[in-house]
Amino acid sequence: MSVSIVYRYFHGGHHDHFYTTNAAEIGTTTHGQAGNAGFVSEGESFTVFNHHHHGLVPIYRYNHAGNHDHFYSTNAAEIGATNPGQSGNHGYTCEGILGYISPHEFPGAIAVYRYYHPHHHDHFYTTNAAEIGTTHHGQTGNNGYQSEGILGYAYPAQHNVLPVHRYFHAGHHDHFYTTNAGEIGTTTHGQSGNHGYTCEGMAFHIFSHHHHGLVPVYRYYHPGHHDHFYTSNAAEIGTTTHGQTGNAGFQCEGVLGYVSPTEFFGSIPIYRYNQAAQHNHFYTSNAAEIGVTQHGQSGNHGYTCEGVLGYVLPVEFFGSLPVY
Questions:
Q1: Sheet holding 146-154, edge to edge
Q2: Is the Cβ–Cβ distance between 49 and 55 less than 8 Å?
């Protein structure tokens, strides 16, 4: 599963907002720069899924040539046409599908609000409700735009995810995970860095900010066992205060990032393992490394499965997205 950024443009003369995943249509993605057909870039707006999956619906794209209005809807009955070039209700012609979106909230997603300016015949879509100042259906907000509810739920264009780098200290038998590569000083696989840790590459991506449906992954360290431990269940250690020591002698080192406790569109699990004899906790999205995924089951290298840390997005998901 992959997503694409939806770019937003505005034609001042026609009072028309235009949204597309194909930046070549206008020829620029630079905010404030004018491109083809008189449209000026207003930057990145949100993302859409590139293909249909269970739980997603298409966003149909329409154009009213007389009113110079581009219109986007997940309700095909509004216009009554879904084939490119087909004319439908209210003088709109179908221009195909912009992409796919969820009609319901899901982890990491934000709402895409829909507005309409009756005087300019302009439909406007944004993830920033403050631009218009209202989200109440039928209410008029800033600049004469009326709220028409929510188009759907999507990932923000500047999707706040970070790669989690994985390191190993052979002497301490300790796996260490961080989004801050500066802690060890290298991201090159096999290269040794600070404190005796060797890079084992990128483990997975993690959400860097809290969104609906996400929970924090707390990072702990046991100085006596030289063991880094990560959990989304703060009750296991009993403290979330940085520097404070909790259960079993683990000290809190803050939050690694955020994960979903449940599966969602395109997500993959992060499996959690423990090598009790060597006090070594291990986390991976590649179950083949240990060979078991059932809680309590023993696998490769003496590791026992402790279940799933949480669900995140796979690396392939970011092929068309910048990672911040």
A1: 122-126, 110-117, 146-154
A2: no
Is the pLDDT at 96 greater than 90? The verdict is yes
Q: Which domain holds residue 275?
A: 161-320
Are 143 and 233 members of one domain? no
| 3 state SS for 91-123 | HCEEEEEEEEEECCCCCCCEEEEEEEECCCCEE
Alpha-helical regions (H) of 151-310: none
Over the stretch 285-301, which tens digit does the pLDDT of each residue have? 999 999 999 999 999 99
Determine the Cα–Cα distance for residues 42 and 44; give it in Å rounded to an integer: 7
Dist. CA 113–CA 156, nearest whole Å: 12
pTM: 0.77
Query: What total number of domains does the chain contain?
Result: 2
> How many CA atoms, within 13 angstroms, populate the side-chain half-sphere of residue 36?
9
- Give the pair of three-digit tokens for residue 219: 């990072």
Q: Are residues 275 and 150 in the same domain?
A: no
Q: Please compute the mean of the pLDDT values over residues 193-208 and round it to a whole number.
A: 95
Please indicate, yes or no, whether residues 102 and 139 belong to a single structural domain of this protein. yes
Beta bridge partners of 61: 72
What is the pLDDT at residue 322?
45
Q: Are residues 167 and 147 in the same domain?
A: no
Q: Do 213 and 134 fall within a single domain?
A: no
Same domain, 122 and 226: no
Q: Which residues contact 214 (CB under 8 A, 6 or more apart)?
A: 107, 108, 207, 258, 259, 260
Secondary structure (DSSP) of 267-279: -EEEEEEEEGGGT
